[in-house]
Amino acid sequence: MAQINPSMLSADFSRLAEEARAVEGADWLHIDVMDNHFVPNLTLGLPVVESLRKATDIPLDCHLMIEDPDRWAPAYAEAGAGSVTFHAEAAAAPVRLARELRAKGARASMALKPATPIEPYEDLLPELDMLLVMTVEPGFGGQAFLDIMLPKIRRTRRLIERHGLSLWLQVDGGVSAETIERCAEAGADVFVAGSAVYGAQDPAAAVRALRERAER
Ligand code: DX5
Ligand code: ZN
């Protein structure tokens, strides 16, 4: 079963609660936290996540594109995020951090930038509930999907199967009606889409169309 997670990065930041309700039928709301250090862009942080948590029932999938997630990520679990994703490139102690997130009741997830291979992290997979393979360089919405990431998605799916694990495999960046089938075919099962959802006339219809294509 495919999960579709609209990214609020492409939503209207002055109306976040309404924009959350505009994607009825989505599985999770993807919240991109950027600190202007790990990526060259600045978005939102804990207070906004806390407010959104109160304003909507849809579970929050927080993608932390920040330095020092070891220090900051657990607070997002405490703020009510159902899933917290930290970047492998930024985490000093990913095993300890993943265990801390799980202990706080969140799903623990780790993201890989395009140039970061999965293989060094093979032994960490049992500590994770989700692995995010970035299909653009993180930092901005609306970028073109990187086809060169498809082999990494395939290799990651094979590792998950080889170890008999059930963690989810998420893709984020350039996911659209044109690219989602390739991602699904390669083995992804959780799809983040920003501009393809919030750039559409009817965001809820865009979610349904993406799901239909992913499950085709
Ligand atoms: C980019 C973010 C994405 C972004 C995706 O660094 O992690 O979640 O919102 O946007 P689209 O779907 O437009 O590529
Ligand atoms: Zn993201």
Automatic annotation (TrEMBL):
CDD domains: RPE
Biological process, per Gene Ontology: pentose catabolic process; pentose-phosphate shunt
Cofactor: Fe(2+); Mn(2+); Co(2+); a divalent metal cation
Signal peptide from the UniProt entry: none
Active-site residues, Swiss-Prot/TrEMBL: 32 (proton acceptor), 172 (proton donor)
EC number, as in UniProt: 5.1.3.1
Record InterPro entries: Aldolase_TIM, Ribul_P_3_epim, Ribul_P_3_epim-like, RibuloseP-bd_barrel
Pathway assignment: Carbohydrate degradation
Catalytic activity annotation: D-ribulose 5-phosphate = D-xylulose 5-phosphate
Record keyword Isomerase present: yes
GO cellular component: cytoplasm
One Gene Ontology MF term: D-ribulose-phosphate 3-epimerase activity
Keyword Zinc annotated: yes
EC class of the enzyme, as a word: isomerase
Binding-site list for a divalent metal cation: 30, 32, 63, 172
Binding site for substrate: 7, 63, 139-142, 172-174, 194-195
UniProt keywords, alphabetically: Carbohydrate metabolism, Cobalt, Isomerase, Manganese, Metal-binding, Zinc
Protein role: Catalyzes the reversible epimerization of D-ribulose 5-phosphate to D-xylulose 5-phosphate.
Similarity field: Belongs to the ribulose-phosphate 3-epimerase family.
PANTHER family with a match to the protein in the record: RIBULOSE-5-PHOSPHATE-3-EPIMERASE
Stated name of the protein: Ribulose-phosphate 3-epimerase
